[in-house]
Structures
1.
Amino acid sequence: MTLTVLTVNDAVHNSLGESLCSELKRAGYDARTSVQAVEVTGARPPAEIYAVLAKAMREQDNTLSLCSISDIPLDISPDVRVLLVPQRMRREDSFLSPGTYTRMPSGSTVACAGALRRAQMLHARRDLNVHIVSSTSSSLLSSVSDGEFDSCILPAHELVFLGQPQKGILRPYPLPVSHFVPAMGQGAYALLSSGAKLPKRVILRLHHAGTVEEVTMEREILKRLGNTAEAVVGVTCQSFGSGFNVNIQALTEDGRLERKLKSAVAGLRDVERLVGMFNEHRSALFTRRA
């Protein structure tokens, strides 16, 4: 039997798929594994990426889908289940440029792949020209190396698979999570199934309970926020000891900060209270223990 792992057709996901297949073999899965790239065209909104992967998985036997948790809808299809979640990689974004974002000359051009990143950078530096580019991360990096843009924003964990930019003066500068709160699930991936199975011993070896707790918190917070007046929301949870450090940030698309919250909570039972605190304090920068 051959098990096929479906991924989005770009350098990052292809590398992740190959890495996962190697991990499956090391974990004792003795079936042959291979990666099949699925084309997702256009702007690649998260719902489309998930839908294309899920459709391809349903149409083929013995297939699994490797999908970024950021791309999985809050209401997942009933016939698709999460088989395992590997350990989360870096969650923050990186600013690829000759210098930090605070030192970029006024009018410099910045390329990014989403409305959240654009709003965050405009909030930090309204004098920069920030462009949303519908492209893969490798193409974004090339556009800076080729001189089309002065800098770009990429998920930090993807740089491991993309390598260093060819343009020697470019450097990756981590963006602080406190001011650039990542999208829900950033840096975390899930292996999805609509029927294919893996041995329990393999799942237990590769599944990371701590990552599941973090992304479950993030998804629940986003669900509870529901329909807000804000266009873009970043939320990330990081486990520590007996609880979680939570960062939530909501901005309008033009970079106006609407709400921001940093808090420590014990677990899911505190989500409703946390969301209530967030909704009560518009345009407030504060740290409070829930």
2.
Amino acid sequence: MTGRRSLILLSLAVGALAAFAAAGCGENGRTPTCPALSLYDVNAPDAATDPKIVAERERAVDAGCMTDLDDAAVVADDAATTP
């Protein structure tokens, strides 16, 4: 019984490690290094166009950590018009 219990615990540990490894991978099996993003109030009229926020967002897009907002709008429009 002890051997079976150890095997179950080992299987759970390996599964947990695999889940963490898979969740951290980006494209091509590499983990992206994402730049920090500032929090801002999305309801504030000029927050999304603040030069600091725009620059941070561009760095995140270049690093592959975020979808460009212009691209996201096109995809959303295409999804809305596709039957």
3.
Amino acid sequence: MRYLSDWSSDDDSLLLSFSNDALQVFSDHAQSDAKPENGGVLLGTVHAGSLLSSVATKPTRRG
């Protein structure tokens, strides 16, 4: 599965960017129809007009 690495506005200003490590967590824990939805936490930093999500935690399951 392919994921977006960043998100830009209509004027091509970068709004949100994901690190390669965060993208790897998304890939490793992709949701499928067979599994219920779980969630992790996104951590990052704010830069002039944009956000960098540098860490994505593994999904946790409450039960």
